[in-house]
Protein: Ca-activated chloride channel family protein
Organism: Pseudobacter ginsenosidimutans
Amino acid sequence: MLYNWFQNITFAHPWFFALLAVLPAMIWWYLKKAGKYQATVLLSTTDSFKQGSSWKNLFRHSLFICRCLAVVCLIIALARPQTRFDEELKTGQGIDIILCMDVSGSMFAQDLLPNRLESAKQVAADFVDSRVTDRVGVVIFSGESFTLVPLTTDKEVLKNAIYNIQLGALEDGTAIGDGLGISVARLKDSKTKSKVIILLTDGEDQGGRISPLEGKDLARTYGIRVYTIGVGTDGYAPVPIPDETGRVVTRQQKVNIDEKLLRLIAEQTGGLYFRARDNESLKGIYREIDQLEKSKIEVTTFRRYTERFHPFAIAAAALLLLEMALRFTLFRKFP
């Protein structure tokens, strides 16, 4: 407990600890003085003194111990122990970002571990943590689209919503245009200078209320950059599928990503296209986007100190008073 207390303590005048060097000198002087004034008596036997030790003799060094402890407490008090509290005020011009995530059945594929969706959820949550002053929202889509979280700066709400995304919550399919359109609708009225959509999918567009090209044109109209991410390995990927008996079996399914479409959406809106073939590449993509879309942040730090020397000063005074009281009462010497 004492160790943990000192872990949170700083000292305003730590050079006062150099005075602790006086303690060895005090001990040396005390021992020398005690030896000088010790009486010597020659006796033929000590049997009569074996029962003669008193409590005063046993505790005769307690006065000196009190004095040493008082000096230690006084030195600590002079060093001015303090606890420090730092408060950061972060201000700046943030970016409005929509994470547009594919939640179709193919996101069960296990070419990313444990599967595409779980890997995408983890890196998206980490990305949210990295955006200090930005507003972030989440849109999910499959055969239809849905705003999971509108633009907010509440990181905990965003991360909880991302972690709770489940496959099968929406009608199955891959309506890329609908997901892009809903994302644009969430950003179009934003007053920030920088508006971004990160569109993540593992498939080809299978139709919806609006086409991906219409969604792209809407993004361009409102000055929204779209970063597109194609998730999945080349060739085939293992996908768990229930068979006729209800058992879940893993089957190989062909990976179909319309890279041409995703690259076109990114290029014509001022963004970039990325391909994530494994967990590490997906993490690297989000890190790269994080570096590309930097916010202007000003950090003002307020530092407050609380003085903690009072207990040590009181303890030093109490020990000195105790020594004086004992010296003139219980340990008083008579001439």
Observations:
- The mean pLDDT is 84.
- Residues 126 and 246 are 36 Å apart (CA to CA).
- The first strand starts at residue 9 and ends at 11.
